[in-house]
Design goal:
Layout (H helix, E strand, L loop, with lengths): L2 H7 L3 H7 L20 E9 L5 E10 L4 E5 L6 H8 L7 E6 L2 E2 L5 H7 E4 L11 H6 L11 H14 L15 H14 L4 E5 L7 H13 L3 E5 L3 H7 L2 E6 L2 E6 L1 H4 L2 H8 L2 E6 L6 E6 L5
The structure holds adenosine-5'-triphosphate and magnesium ion.
Length: 293
């Protein structure tokens, strides 16, 4: 693509601002969030599936401040549906989802967006946006809260932390899958949320990039719910792991208790065992698909 073509695809920040409805700055963030409550508590008795049956049922867990919960399960087990239920994209559930003690369903979209950022599995941003302008979208829920230069500093830091400085003026269309995933994470960080919901945030990243991304989110002290297919990653980063099967919770406990054959075999057909690291002696968990061994 010629530079001129690429440039014409860029939407400038001024254009975004023009198209952004000016928010009411008299927001009600401080209203009644209870700092002593779990950041997230999920009590889903059932979530109906359009067309009949249930997408999710019997899922109950809480996530405390700074904790990282990995959600694992086979394709179609309900991981994305759970993320969508928490983010209130799917409503009509029987049960309650609470953020610091307040019902999510009672919060305005803006109140939620100030506290909860979502990196969705099938995000389809406007690919004409530059990295910088895409990341700046994370500041929209906070419009008017802080001076413009503080917003700019937050965006610049998110871009730096995700290693995208060199690419900040590129349009999203001209990024690789992994670079785009980093940009999506930078947008999430720029939102300065208390809770992030990450749906397969690392599937385009190389192995060091995967660990780096999760370390980065954890280092910010943000509470994390992350859908992960990489069980090794789940084992090393999560404080707890929620295993889903057919829309239901099988177990939610520490990685050591969940990532064992007793639970993984019936759900995934996987066996799991540990071997000592040849140099450090530390226990390494191995996952095996028996018929491929
Ligand atoms: N809107 C919908 N209407 C009907 N069925 C749906 C709907 N959304 C999801 N499903 C079905 O619900 C089940 C769970 O879907 P979901 O996307 O939550 O799975 P997942 O665990 O995220 O899978 P994957 O690992 O493939 O991303 C699947 O069988 C899917 O086909
Ligand atoms: Mg999914």
């Amino acid at each position: 693509m010629r530079n001129q073509d690429a440039a014409s695809l860029l939407i400038t920040r001024t254009e975004i601002e023009k198209s952004t409805v000016k928010r009411n700055t008299a927001h009600t963030l401080k209203d009644d969030f209870d700092p002593l409550e779990s950041v997230l508590s999920v009590d889903i008795q059932s979530l109906p599936r359009p067309g009949g049956g249930e997408l999710l049922s019997a899922i109950h867990f809480a996530v405390n401040a700074g904790e990282c919960l990995a959600v694992i399960g086979p394709n179609g087990s309900g991981k994305t549906s759970l993320v969508r239920a928490i983010s209130q994209e799917l409503t009509h559930l029987k049960g309650e989802i609470r953020l610091r003690g307040r019902a999510m369903s009672a919060l305005s979209r803006q109140q939620r967006a100030r506290q909860v950022a979502v990196l969705a599995q099938n995000d389809t941003p406007d690919m004409r946006l530059s990295v910088e302008d895409y990341v700046a979208l994370g500041r929209i829920p906070h419009a008017g809260d802080v001076p413009r230069n503080a917003d700019d500093a937050i965006v610049a830091k998110a871009i730096k932390d995700t290693g995208l400085q060199r690419l900040r003026r590129r349009s999203l269309v001209a990024l690789s899958g992994g670079e785009r995933q980093r940009a999506a994470l930078a947008r999430v960080l720029a939102q300065t949320p208390e809770l992030v919901l990450l749906d397969e945030p690392t599937n385009h990243l190389d192995p060091p990039g995967r660990a780096e991304l999760l370390s980065l989110v954890k280092s910010k002290g943000i509470t994390v719910v992350a859908v992960l297919h990489d069980l090794t990653l789940a084992g090393s980063f999560a404080d707890r792991v929620l295993l889903l099967s057919q829309g239901q919770s099988v177990i939610c406990d520490t990685p050591e208790r969940v990532l064992v054959s007793e639970y993984l075999y019936p759900v995934f057909g996987l066996t799991s065992f540990t071997v000592p690291h040849p140099h450090t002696g530390k226990a390494l968990r191995i996952f095996e698909v028996p018929h491929c061994a």
